[in-house]
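Working notes for the structural subgroup meeting. M.R. asked for a predicted model of this chain before we commit to crystallization trials. I am recording the input and output together here so anyone reviewing the notebook later can reproduce the run.

Input as submitted:
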Amino acid sequence: MDVKAMMREIGQKAKAASAKLGFASPEAKQAALEAGADCIEASLEAILAANEKDMQFGRDKGLSDAMMDRLMLDEARVRAIATGLRTVAAQEDPVGKVLAEWDMPSGLHIQRVSTPLGVIGVIYESRPNVTADAGGLCLKAGNAAILRGGSESFHSSGAIHACLVEGLKAAGLPAESIQLVPTRDRAAVSEMLTMTESIDVIVPRGGKGLVGLVQREARVPVFAHLEGICHVYVDGAADPEKARAIVMNAKCRRTGICGAAETVLIDKAFFAKHAAPFIEDMVAAGVEVRADGALAELSGTVKARAEDFGVEYLDKIIAAKLVDGVDEAIAHIRTFGSNHTDAIVTEDDATAQRFFQRVDSAILMRNASTQFADGGEFGMGAEIGIATGKMHARGPVGAAQLTSFKYLVTGDGTVRA
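Returned structure, recorded in token form:
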């Protein structure tokens, strides 16, 4: 296979499709997404059969339990994919919105109006649902998408992508609006990163290795999602029962997602009053707690090393540390965090406000699990990723974040003096 030629052709088709999507009606895009969702539900057995091939590939490759969980589809997850598409379909169309308008003394009337970005390349690992999430969100925002899924999810992504194409055809939109790179060859990734003539932005969604590679080598602009090194800080004024529930959920609900807590910081004042029952809970649930200081004396914990902090484990492992108040917690997060999602558990409004003001992460939470760091949970239907940078899009990247804008300037024979 001539990967370079193949990717050039995919890029040209995407560029042509994006020109038509730029003025596609909201009704046509909605119809395509709804038809794609219908196809996914109707193709349930075929998608699960494709996923079993991927699961066997993952077992043969020796993937961790957490990574296998990311890869696995069952009936509930497939139906959730379809539901996510329908939710995106039902949202207000983000294209053509007047973001601002004003009149100038010269007689000009100026509008800033949202427009599609153009062609979006999405490079992702493992999770086959990203195929639908990314394809659907790009389409909703009037963008063409080039999707390059991980080798592990090759068959599942292909089966889901086929349904998205059926939806496009049913709505009379170009079938090339959402393309899936049909090879596991990593050379396709290298090609995507340099396709400045046809791709307008790259969105990497995966581990540190993938995102680091994209950031180093891309000549196309990148929406970065580097790591999910998420912290939960349990303040001295935290409700102990809330803390217990939140920490357990943040770590254990699903350990392999980017919103999973990787470090718990405990105020010494809280520990003096309540100890740390959530650490006992995690140990009982099979989590390896790498504990620092006095926490290492708790039954079942492992003494932490310095290098155990600032790590995205994506597994049943968490680092734990005592801190002397909110300022020390903030300093730790600034040193070891990844600007993804960090949470505080406290009943003190002033402390919560201080945490919100001084922690510079894309998502900050109070008295809630970090596992809510998800576009669907934010009412976006789905997300293409969680951007940890500061340019353009930040936090969950939904359809609205996949637009740019242009200025529409109207005069009446207006000339400049």
